[in-house]
Design a protein that fits this description.
The chain is α/β, with parallel strands linked by helices and 269 residues long. It has helices at residues 13-24, 36-49, 65-74, 103-119, 156-177, 203-210, 217-220, 222-228, 253-267; strands spanning 4-8, 29-33, 55-59, 80-85, 128-132, 182-187, 236-239, 242-245. The chain has one domain: NAD(P)-binding Rossmann-like Domain (Rossmann fold, 3-Layer(aba) Sandwich). Helix 3 runs parallel beside helix 4 (103-119) and helix 5 (156-177) packs across helix 9 (253-267).
Length: 269
């Protein structure tokens, strides 16, 4: 049986870069994507450069918990030993999914939470889980009520930052509950991706001022690739060219336990 690494959001700029980098090293990849045609185009491009690459595609929509469950059900026990939670989204407006979840939180947090929970029993005890977080996490606070923001409380960047902070919280609590897992966080810095295009009049100005200083997708994904190769079982924070212990501001075990319980409650509704 071929053992694969799951990459969510594998058709995005950093997801595609991760797929190619892993394929070049001979790692078997499972692209978990919403758009199959786009995934096939990415795969075909990689195969044109690395004909021996082993890349499988399966549909996954992190905005649908039914899709997450269907995807997890399709994964055979022992066929996956790593998950790279790369998918990320910023919703331009307040919008609820069919599950009643705010769209940004569904893609960036609830989907990855449920996917990991459903696949844990199918992976080895020392499986690797890497979550792509964001430097924006440091600028927000988080509580259980933030998991289901109201339209009044919604803001594009605020919801994105809190959803990534929730993913960070989940990752650390996951490591506490499963000591053998190799759980790590990766911060790509500011990357020139579609997430920068927020749909406002000032986007051209933002592009002019900031994009020259952005990392390329290939550079931005390097911390995550190093995290996927890590052997230690204590979580580390991969950023730039290094890895460090988890910053103290994120060491909130009581909050993490509450967020975990709150997530279980939301998903059981």
């Amino acid at each position: 049986m071929v053992v694969r690494t799951i990459i969510t959001g594998a058709t995005g700029s950093m997801g595609a870069a991760a797929c190619e980098a892993l394929a070049a090293k001979g790692v078997a990849v499972l692209m978990a994507c919403r758009n199959i045609k786009k995934a096939e185009a990415v795969r075909d491009g990689i195969l044109s450069r690395y004909p021996a690459a082993d890349i499988e595609i399966r549909q996954l929509d992190l905005c649908s918990m039914a899709s997450v469950r269907e995807f997890a059900e399709s994964v055979a026990p022992g066929s996956v030993d790593a998950i790279f939670h790369n998918a990320g989204a910023i919703s331009r407006r307040y919008e609820l999914t069919a599950d009643g979840l705010e769209k940004t939180f569904s893609t960036n947090y609830f989907g990855p939470w449920l996917l990991t929970s459903l696949l844990l029993s199918k992976m080895p005890q020392d499986a690797r889980i890497v979550s792509m977080v964001s430097l924006s996490c440091r600028y927000v606070t988080l509580c259980e009520h933030d998991l289901q923001p109201t339209e009044k409380d919604f803001s594009q960047l605020g919801s994105y930052a809190r959803s990534k902070r929730a993913l960070l919280s989940f990752s650390l609590e996951l490591a506490r509950r499963n000591p053998g897992l190799r759980v790590n966080l990766a911060d790509p810095g500011i990357v020139a991706t579609g997430l920068i295009d927020l749909g406002h009049w000032f986007d051209p100005l933002t592009d002019f001022l900031f994009k020259p200083f952005c990392n390329s997708p290939e550079k931005g994904v390097q911390p995550a690739l190093r995290a996927l190769e890590a052997s230690q079982t204590s979580p580390r924070y991969y950023v730039g060219k290094g890895a460090k212990t988890i910053p103290g501001r994120y060491l909130t075990p009581e909050l993490d336990a509450k967020i975990w319980a709150g997530t279980e409650a939301v998903l059981s509704e």
